[in-house]
TrEMBL record:
Source organism of the structure: Chryseobacterium defluvii
Protein's name in the database: Phosphatidate cytidylyltransferase
Phylogenetic placement of the source organism: Bacteria, Pseudomonadati, Bacteroidota, Flavobacteriia, Flavobacteriales
Pathway(s) annotated for this protein in UniProt: Lipid metabolism; Phospholipid metabolism; CDP-diacylglycerol biosynthesis; CDP-diacylglycerol from sn-glycerol 3-phosphate: step 3/3
Localization in the cell: Cell membrane
Family (UniProt): Belongs to the CDS family.
Listed GO MF terms: phosphatidate cytidylyltransferase activity
GO process terms (BP): CDP-diacylglycerol biosynthetic process
Length: 290
């Protein structure tokens, strides 16, 4: 068997296992079964998101090739401040999904950053533009991801919104790949991602909706309607992949990193999550008023 395939398989299994352990009660149950010091699931999830955000930010800085100005050294302090503000809300149960103008503006900034990347990439050749883009593209999505799960410090329950979000993203990618491989003829974005086709996209949407139907039926305690979440994931997950592909193409980079052997970097693996997490967060806001 090809060594690269073995490497990709092992690292992929480890990656998926870490995501499952940190986004479901299984992580705390496993650690508490072997450790005398108990840990709550909320801390495992927080550590996971913090780690992914730090590595993802560093990868984005390397991709965009900052110059020797002050901007490179300002990125992490700004990211820490933003993440700290969301972290306080995470630990004080302050994600009520009310209509807050500052949240809507922050979510709008993500959309503006995406449009800028595709329509006005020259703006990102300046270090000031790189600083703003890194903060918006990496720090904000991971910060909003802290608000997706529900947890209780009283009975140590931890909801599974993020776990099923990952499952739907993985299924969307897999179904789109398979549908594109067997039926793909019309290229979606040949200059950015030559392998993506509209047939693959349609297959990803249809089959992800089927899976989300079963999630909605058998996981009624999840926040929101997961048929809607499934449609949003299937719609925006490919956009997340195109955004990261365009970012790497703009700066002439093949992979964001190599922290996951055979799979690339954190941004390579979580490109869809970076777009889907804030989109689902926005849906949870709007869902309260529908």
């Amino acid at each position: 068997m090809d060594k690269n395939l073995i490497q990709r398989t092992i690292s992929g299994i480890v990656y998926v296992a870490i995501i499952i352990l940190c986004t479901s009660p299984l992580g705390a149950q496993f650690i508490n079964s072997i450790s005398p010091e108990p840990i709550q699931q909320q801390y495992l999830y927080y550590l996971l998101i913090t780690f992914l955000m730090v590595i993802g930010s560093w990868e984005c800085i390397k991709i965009m090739k900052f110059g020797k100005g002050y901007e490179k050294w300002v990125v992490f302090p700004v990211i820490v401040i933003i993440f700290y503000m969301f972290s306080k809300r995470y630990f004080y149960h302050d994600f009520y999904f009310d209509f807050r103008l500052n949240e809507i503006l922050a979510l709008a900034l993500i959309a503006i950053a995406v449009v800028t990347l595709f329509k006005y990439p020259n703006e990102l050749y300046y270090d000031s533009g790189k600083l703003i883009f890194t903060v918006i593209y990496v720090a904000l999505p991971f910060s909003f991801a802290l608000g997706l799960p529900k947890y209780s410090t009283y009975n140590h329950t931890f909801s599974l919104e993020v776990l099923f979000l990952f499952i739907l993203i993985w299924s969307s990618d897999t179904f789109a790949y398979l549908a594109g491989k067997f039926f793909g003829k019309h290229k979606m974005a040949p200059k950015i991602s030559p392998k993506k086709t509209w047939e693959g996209y349609a297959g990803g949407v249809i089959l992800t909706l089927v899976l989300s139907y079963f999630v909605e039926q058998y996981q009624p305690e999840l926040r929101g309607n997961w048929m809607v979440v499934g449609f949003l994931v299937a719609t925006f997950a490919p956009l997340g992949d195109l955004v990261e592909s365009q970012l790497k193409r703009t700066f002439g980079v093949k992979d964001s990193g190599n922290i996951i052997p055979g799979h690339g970097g954190i941004l390579d693996r979580l490109d869809s999550f970076l777009i889907c997490a804030p989109v689902v967060y926005l849906y949870f806001i709007l869902e309260k008023f529908i």
